[in-house]
Amino acid sequence: MENTILNDRYELIELIGTGGMGHVYKAKDNKLDRTVAVKILKEEFLEDEEFVERFHAEAQAAAKLSHTNIVAVYDVGVDMDMHFIVMELIEGVILSDYVKRMEKLDYTEALSIAMQISKALAHAHKNGIVHRDIKPHNVLLSKDGVAKVADFGIAKATTARTFTLSGKTVGSVHYFSPEQARGGYVDSRADIYSLGVVLYEMLTGRPPFDGETPVVVAVKHLQEKMTEPIILNPEIPESVNKIVVKAMAKSADDRYQSAGELLGEMEAAMAGKELPSEFNLSLDFIEGTANAYDSTDATKDFVLATNTKDKREEYDVPLAKYKKRHVLSTTIAVLSAMVLIIFIAYYGITELMTTVIPDPEEYIVEDYRGMDYEEVKSKLESEFRIIVEKHEVYDDNTKAGIIIAQDKEQGIVFKEMAANKIRLTVSLGPEEIEISRFEGLEYRIVERTLIDLGLVPVQIDIINENIAKGQVIRTDPPEGMTARPGESVSVYVSLGPELKEVTVPSFMGMTLNQVKELLADLNLRLGGYVPDVLTEESVVIEHIPAEGAKVFEGDKIEYKFAVPASNLLVPYTIMPGNLEIQAEPIKVLIESTPSSTGTTSIAYSESHMKDSFPITVYIEIPEGGQTIVRVLLNNILNFETVLFYEDYKDMEGVQVIGATPVPVEPSPGE
Q1: Mapping DSSP to helix (H, G, I), strand (E, B) and coil, where does residue 43 land?
Q2: What angle do CA 568, 572, 575 make, to 5 degrees?
Q3: What is the structure's pLDDT at 493?
Q4: Which residues contact 547 (CB under 8 A, 6 or more apart)?
Q5: Closest among 164, 158, 161 to 180, alpha carbons compared
Q6: Sheet (strand 5-6) strand order
Q7: I want to staple 139 with a disulfide (CB 3.0 to 4.6 A). Which of 32, 95, 470, 618 is the partner?
Q8: Residue ranges in the chain whose pLDDT is less than 50
């Protein structure tokens, strides 16, 4: 595969990696003179239309994204039945290899890498893309320490209903979110769960769940509670442990609701700040519910021997007897406690509660529309400990930060000590779409990206000496600025260097080598030519554009060549009929009409006496054709015959001669 050139541009140098769907090669972009990575779909998937579509979906999704922490996609194409993507080449190491080599990372280094991944996800989610396959194998660490997320091969736009493909393993099961494992609805919060697993592995050196088969691992994601990372690595701060726990909540509603929110908490933990109280919420997979198995199983691989050893020495009994004795005593204690509780409840619990516990306070929900979200949130949380959920939407008529809707109507009563929760819809202001970096990309990719973002691309072609033809020079608004949905974005596209006009000379009668030399001198290119197979004697008999036409440097000229034919020169004996009635001397005129030209010419013209007959004349027969021969005596047709090439080609005395058609100048207007 090395030294293969795709689309006359990308020269494959060496194989540098293999993924689930394709092989990755280091390659050279001969047009822009830069080193790139080229991912080629594996041959085993070429006949599978679904895999081919997923492979191209990878390029379609990744081409929309332009971010420091995302591997850039430059081009996508098909050549020689090979489907390929051209990407940024990262010189560095894969995160999975780095963690394996280091065994586990210091929490500050792990947070730094996770924060960069969060930035990449925040950018992707903002552009409607869910990665769905976040894992250490898809994160590259450059030599200067920049983390870059790669392989959006199974990402789908969140604008469509996004489900895990049934019956197929999508992504790596060790990093699945529970909703992916059960084949349910997947949104951006699935990426947050997977990032939590990656952070867990960086901190502890192992994923939170493992098993003999992918199905076993998937079930653990759904049902089992994890061993918290701080148990495996006590050097982790409590704040970092809480971040992992919340990111890996089995319910998507209990996780961080955006990559930006997760990023903010990691930045706070990095700075040593105290995390907000919402981390103290009782999450079902920590406290234990029907979805979590018995708590004794959570640390089955990490038995702490201290207390067990003390008790075994104290009782001085074998371990098996100690376990039986411990179970019996525990059972008696539980039954005693249950009897006591029932007794208290039966005789006095109602009176006790009314005496000790006062009536709960109440809070009446107000109309918060039009009010500042932060002020309302602070008031609700501080005065009545109401859980406030924030839902942000764009609104052209309301400035950012103002509440525009609420899910609890005015007048509803909240009571103290209940799980009070309100969802406030907050305006983000008018939607503003940030313009990404498009310089150097093919216009068709930029056009599709802008359309998908809801913008209107307007192509403006200009001459540029430094950027290849068809690639984007800049946009207006420029990179980093914003535009409103439906607004136009001017995309300046290079026409390449300014080309000079050339007058086409005459190539008539030239051989192919002579044509190539003259084209090089004129900065023109050789187009197609017929026939496909030429000889050294083949010469031009026609070319398009014709002599005198105006073209530009780099344009192609098409040619038609004449190939010498192997004609036969046949000795043909003439013996006229009715010779005795001819008047002497007899004027003999012989006409020939070859099928190659259809033109009649005189092959012989002499006068003879009767005793001179028979006479021999030489008739030319075109290669693969025939010649009509007419014999006239004293200007009167005596006989006519047809000589066929196939009848004479192997006859003794027949000569083989070469015949090159004479170039014919085109008529005016042809």
Answers
A1: helix
A2: 165
A3: 93
A4: 504, 505, 506, 507, 508
A5: 164
A6: 5-6, 10-18, 22-29, 34-41, 82-88, 73-79
A7: 95
A8: 155-171, 276-326, 344, 346-357, 662-670
Q: Which of 29, 133, 395, 555 is catalytic?
A: 133
In the 8-state DSSP scheme, what is residue 70? B
Partners of residue 221 on adjacent β-strands: none
Architecture, CATH, for domain 502-562: 2-Layer Sandwich (3.30)
Cis peptide before 585 (omega within 30 of 0): yes
Residue 197 parent element (H or E):
helix 188-204
Buried b (16+ CB within 10 A) or exposed e, 469-490: eebbbbbebeeeeebeeeeebe
pLDDT of residue 353: 45
253 is catalytic: no
CATH number for region 435-494: 3.30.10.20
Dist. CA 423–CA 408, nearest whole Å: 7
Write down the residue that tokens 């010469």 correspond to: 539
Q: State how far the Cα of 154 lies from the Cα of 147, in Å rounded to an integer.
A: 20
pTM for the model? 0.43
Contact 507, 459 (CB under 8 A): no
Q: Are strands 586-594 and 601-608 parallel, antiparallel or unpaired?
A: antiparallel
CATH, domain 93-303, list 2.60.40.10, 3.30.70.2860, 1.10.3380.10, 1.10.510.10: 1.10.510.10
* Closest-CA residue to 284 (of 247, 314, 263, 254): 254
CATH class for the domain made up of 1-89: alpha beta
The answer for residues whose C-beta is within 8 angstroms of residue 545's C-beta and 6 or more apart is 504, 551, 557
